[in-house]
User: Fold this.
Amino acid sequence: MGSAGEDQSHVDVLIVGAGPAGLMMATWLAKCGVKTRIVDKRGTKVFNGQADGLQCRTLEIFDSFGFGDRAWKEANHMLEICLWNPDSNGVLQRSARIADTIPGISRFQQVVLHQGRIERFFLDSLESCSDIRVERGVLPTKLELDESLVESPDAYPITVHLRHLSEAEATPTQTGTAANGSAIQDGLFRSNLTADDTAELTRASALDAKSNTEEVVKAKYMLGADGAHSWVRQQLGFTLEGESTDYIWGVLDIVPITNFPDIRMRCAIHSADSGSVMVIPRESKLVRLYIQLTTAAYNGGKRADRSKIDPDAILQAAQKIMAPYKISYRRLDWWTAYQIGQRVGTQFSAHERIFLAGDAVHTHSPKAGQGMNVSLQDSFNLGWKVASVVKGLADRSILKTYESERRKIAQDLIAFDHQFSRLFSGRPARDIMDEAGISMEVFKEAFEKGNMFASGIAVDYCASVIVAKETESNPVISTQELAPEIKLGKRIPSVKILSQADARPWHLQERLPSNGRWRVMVFAGDVTKPSQKEIIERLGAALDSKTSFLQRYKPAGAHYDSVIEVLTVHAAPRNQVDIFDFPEVFRPYDEIDGWDYEKIFVDDISYHEGHGRLYETFGINPEEGCLVVLRPDQYVSYVGRLDDYDAVDRFFSGFMVAQTAQ
Amino acid sequence: MGSAGEDQSHVDVLIVGAGPAGLMMATWLAKCGVKTRIVDKRGTKVFNGQADGLQCRTLEIFDSFGFGDRAWKEANHMLEICLWNPDSNGVLQRSARIADTIPGISRFQQVVLHQGRIERFFLDSLESCSDIRVERGVLPTKLELDESLVESPDAYPITVHLRHLSEAEATPTQTGTAANGSAIQDGLFRSNLTADDTAELTRASALDAKSNTEEVVKAKYMLGADGAHSWVRQQLGFTLEGESTDYIWGVLDIVPITNFPDIRMRCAIHSADSGSVMVIPRESKLVRLYIQLTTAAYNGGKRADRSKIDPDAILQAAQKIMAPYKISYRRLDWWTAYQIGQRVGTQFSAHERIFLAGDAVHTHSPKAGQGMNVSLQDSFNLGWKVASVVKGLADRSILKTYESERRKIAQDLIAFDHQFSRLFSGRPARDIMDEAGISMEVFKEAFEKGNMFASGIAVDYCASVIVAKETESNPVISTQELAPEIKLGKRIPSVKILSQADARPWHLQERLPSNGRWRVMVFAGDVTKPSQKEIIERLGAALDSKTSFLQRYKPAGAHYDSVIEVLTVHAAPRNQVDIFDFPEVFRPYDEIDGWDYEKIFVDDISYHEGHGRLYETFGINPEEGCLVVLRPDQYVSYVGRLDDYDAVDRFFSGFMVAQTAQ
Assistant:
C-alpha cells in the first residue's frame, strides 16, 4: 500500500488500470517482490461480456504463473473451425473444416473464457503471493515526470495525484465498451456469476475509507494500462495512428436455440447478400455471435446511427444470414455493437519510466480473439524487466527492448486484423469472374495462415542486448545450429522430460515458472560418454568458481538459484546415472534441504506418458549437447557450445549488474 | 444444521466423524441434496502426518467430485519402486526397479499427499455446493435405534444425544494416532501449513456458541466414521476380529539430508540383520520413512515399552539399516510409532440404518498406503445408496449391498496387508537354504501382484439387485461378451471420446461425475449403417414412451436427466453425422437451453490428443453395439443388446421406486 507520509507516499511501481494488462504487470511484480500499487477507476472488476479468446501462448503464460489449469478447466475448448458459404444454388453449406489450433505447436489449444474469470485468476494469484491489492474507485488526476531524474537509479521521477472516488462516482451505469473504445449503452444480465466473484461484488459496495480524498504518489516506474481512452497516454501527449472503416458489427452473447448443426464449433458464415456471422461457442452453454449489420441505416457514414441498434435488430440480421437454419434465444447474457478500427501507438514509453500497454497502445477488431492476449503479453514482456531494474539486478538498457519488441507485435496485429476483417466483412464471390466478391479459397487460406499468428507462438523478438542474434553490434553471437528448434527470439517449445531423481514426467515449460529467474539450460548430452562427462565437469568447475556469473550477479545471502537457475537435461539412459554423477553446482547443496533433486532431468521414456524425444525434436546432437540461456519469460536469448563458458559470461555481462556486496 | 425444536431436531443423515470417510459421505449427500449433519469431536481438521497414499481409483473418484486436479497438482507423484537388499557380500544394492502403478490401468497414477489436504478439498467442495458444514467439538453421548421403525420409509428411528464441547475439551494436546488406533504422544511441527488452512486454524479458536450444551437429534440414517476406537461401533456392540503382531515400526516425516540416490523413489530396503525401511517421497521436499525397530527393548512383548521410542531412536535405526549410505535431517514434520495389527468388523450396519465405515470396521498397517483409500471408498459406495433411498427414488433393498460389497474388500485388504507386512518385516534370506529368511524374489513378486490390488482398480462387486451378474436369483442377466472389457461389477475403464457437437476430447469417466445419476450408455455402433440406425430409432422410441423407465422413475418436474441419464457413444466417422441424426431422446430439448449438445459422443480421432479406440479397447463390435447400465459410482450394473429394451426396464424395476406423481 506504500508507506504514507502526510499525503505523499513512495512506491516502486504504480499501475493505472486493473484490466488484464495491468493485472499481469502487478502479478509479475508480486512474484518478484517489488513494491507496487495498482489502481482502477471502476468500482468492481468485470463480470461478463468483454474479450474472451485465449491463445495457446497465453495459456502457457498463465501456466507459468500457476493458474493455467484453472483457465483450461473452466474454459470452453474450441477444436474446429467450420466455414459456411453459399453453394452454387445460393444455399448455405459447410465448405470446409479446419483445426482451430495448429496441431503440435503447443501443449495447450485456443479456448474461450470471459475476461471476468481471467481477472479473478490474477486477483487470486496476487492475494496468494503478495500484499498487492487492486485499489478500486481511484482516479489519477495529475501526472508529472521529472526528466532530469530519469537515468538516476534510485530516484522517484514520477509524481501522480490520485483521487479516491465516492461510491456513486465509481459505479456508473454499466455500459458496454466497444472494441474501438467507444462506450455504448447495453443490456447487462448478470446470469453468469460464479461463487468466488460474490465477495468481489459485496466489497464493491463499500469502497475504501479514503472516499473523496486526494493523495500524491511518487513512483520510480509507472504503467498506463488504462484502455483505449488511456488517460496516461493523453498526459504524455502520445497518439494512436490508424484508420476506421464503415463496417458495423453487432455482438450477442446468448444461449442459442437453433437447428444449425455447428453452433458449438467456431464458424465463419458468409451469406450470399446479407453479410457474415462469426460463431464463437463459449462456457455455460453460451455462444457469442459477431454479426455484420448491413442495413443502410447503420452504415450511412463513419458515425452510424447507433440508437437503432438493439438485440432484436442484431438477432434479425443473424437470422437472415443463417437462413434456412433457425436461430433464436431465451437467454441473453450481454450485447454490444462496434465499428472496426485499427490503430497503434507511436511510442510505448516516456524515457523508459512511464510505459503504456494493451488497448492504450493498440486497438483493433475483436473477432480474431487477439485483444486480451496481445495486451497481456505486452506487460508479460515488461514486468520482469522493470522488476530486474528496480531490484538493481539489471541495467536500465534492457527497458528499451519493451518498445522494440512489442511495437512490432502491435503492428503485425494491426496488419493481420486489417486483412482478416476485410475478408470477413466482404461478400463471397459468386464465381471466379466476380471480382468485387471475396474468394472463399483465399478466405480459407488466410484463416489457416492466421492461425499461426493467432496462436501467439509465432512471436519472434529481434536482436538486442538480451537476444543474442547475429547483428553488427552484439558482442555475443549464438550458434543456432546446435539446437535448430530452440529458436533465438522465440519462446522455447515444450516436450516431456523426466526428473532424474524420481522419474516423474514434466513438460519442460512446467519447470520454467515465472519467478523472475534467468535460466541456463545445460543440454548435457550422453554423460555416460567420457568425453561428454569431461565437458560437463569443466563447465561445472567454471560455474562453481567464485567469479562466475552465477556468483557475481547474486546478491549476498540470496538463494543459489534466485537470479540465474541452472537446469540440466541429459541424454544418457535414466537408469545408468544418478544425480550424484553430476558436479554439485548442477544439484546444489543446502544445509537444511540437503541436495536439490529438482535441477537435473533426462530425455528418456516415462512409464505412463510416452517419450518426449527432446534431443531429436530440438535437433540437439547427444554427443555434443549445447547450452541455452532463457529469459525469465521463456524466450530464447542464446544458444552456444557447452565448452564456451566465456561467451555466456560475456552475454550476462552485457546487462547484468554486479552485486557489490559479493 | 437441522431445523431445531426446543432441543430436538430432525435430520435425514447424521455423520459422526469428519475424517476422509465421513467427509466423503457428506460430499455425496451434498451433491444429491440430502439434509445432513456431520459432527466431529476434534476442534480442527488435521494439518500434517496421517495417511497419505492416494490410489489411482481414489483419484478417479476425486475427479468425479471435481477436485481430482487439485490432488494431482499438489501431490508428489511416485513413479518407481526400487528394491534394495544385501548383495552376496552383505552390501546394500538396488536389486530391482518396478513401475509404482501398473501402466495402462487408469488415467491417474498413485500419488502421495497428506490427509489434511484431502480433508481441505472435501471441505471446499461441501462449501461450494451445499450448506453442510462440519460441526467441530461435538461429541455423541447416547445412541438409540428404535427397531420397530427401521423398515418405515419416512421414520426417524435413530436418536442421538450430542454434547457441544468447550474449547479446552475439543483441543486436547495433539497426539499421533497409530495405525492400530492407539494414541501416542508425538512431536508436532506445523511447518507444512498452506494458506487456505489458516482460516481453519483461526476458526478453531472460536468454537460454536453452543459450547457446553447438549441437544437431541432424530435421524433417518447414520454413519459412524469415527475411527479405530469408534464410539458408534461400541454402542452397537459390534467388534473387530483379527490379530496383532510383535513388529513395531517407527515413522518419520523429514526433509532428508542423504547421499542415498533413490530417496525420491518409493523404496523397500531390507538390511541383512538390522530390519527394513520403506521410503515414501512426499510433497514439500518431505520424505516419510517407515522404519522397523528391532532393538529388544521395543519388542519384549505385545505391549512394548513405547516410552523409549523417540525420533532419535527411530533415526538411529534407519541409519543402521541404510548404511553405508548416510541419512540425517534438520527438519522433522511429524513422527509416530505403531504395532502392526489387522482386524475387520463382523457387521457393517445395524438394520441398514446405522452404518460403519473406514477404520471403524477395518484396521491394518499403513505401509501399503491403503488405509485412507479403502475408507474413502467405503462411503463412496454407501453415499449414493442412502441418498437414493432417502429421496424415495430407490428401495431400501439396495442398502444391503453395502455390507456384501465392502466387507469382502475389507477382508481382501486385511489378507493383503497380512502377507505384505510379514514379507516386509522379515529378514532377507542369505541364500536358498536360509528358510527363516524372506526370499527377495518372492518379495518382488508379492510387490508386483500387490500393485494391482493397491491400485483400487481390481475391486469387483458381487451379483446383487444392482449388479446383473449371472446368479440363480437375478431376474436380469447381462451379456458380458458384447463388451468384454466393460466388466460387470468393476468400474468402467476410461478412454478418450469426442463430443459430437464440438469435437472436444474427453475421458469417458469425465462425463460420469458423481451427482447421483444412473447412466444408460448407448454404444450405438456405426449409425451410418441403415440396420444400426434402425435399431437406434427403435430404442429411441422405447425410451421416449410415456411409460419408459426414464419417465417412470423421474419425479414430476425434475430435469430429464436427473435420475437416469442417457449417454451415447457411436462409431461412425465424426464428420459424417451430426446430433440431429439421432432421435431427440438422445439429445433432449429444453425450452430455455435448446437441444442438449453434451449427450452424444463419438469414437474417432482428435486433433491434439490421439484416438481413444473405445470400441476396439472395450471389445464392442461397431456393427452390433451394446447397452451398458452404470451405477452412480461408475460401477457396471448391466451389459446387454441394444434391441433388448425390456431387460433394461426389468433391471431398473428391481429396485427403483415409481414416482406416483407421474
